[in-house]
Amino acid sequence: MGDDALVYVRESAEETVLLLATRAAADVTLPVWMVPFGGGVGILPAELGPAVFSSGPEGLHLAATGASFTAWVLPGVTIAADEHPVSQRGLAR
Fold first, then answer.
1. CB-CB neighbours of 69 under 10 Å
2. Three-state DSSP state, 20
3. How far apart are CA 82 and CA 91, in angstroms?
4. How do residues 12-70 score in pLDDT, each as one tens digit?
5. Which residues have CB under 8 Å from 5's CB, separation 6+?
6. What single-letter DSSP state applies at residue 12?
7. pTM, entire model
8. DSSP 5
9. Bridge partners of 35?
10. How many CB atoms lie within 10 A of CB 57?
């Protein structure tokens, strides 16, 4: 995401936690398919931290005004028993 921001998710069947860690102001846009947001448009309040999450047609936008650690709780994900836990691109599902 750059030198000043790190974005990652922790997923389970119960919930997905999206995390943004920054050491300076940062703006990150993610493709909608990367995070199980449910296709909504708008702002999602953070569970912890000051950064802002918004969703629109261009993707999911995360913005921090300075150093921060922010977490958002999203719906869980399930992987069917016959699917591989890693995609063909090497990304964890």
1. 14
2. strand
3. 17
4. 888 889 999 999 999 999 988 887 766 666 778 889 999 999 988 888 999 999 999 99
5. 20, 21, 22, 23, 26, 28, 62, 64
6. -
7. 0.77
8. E
9. none
10. 6
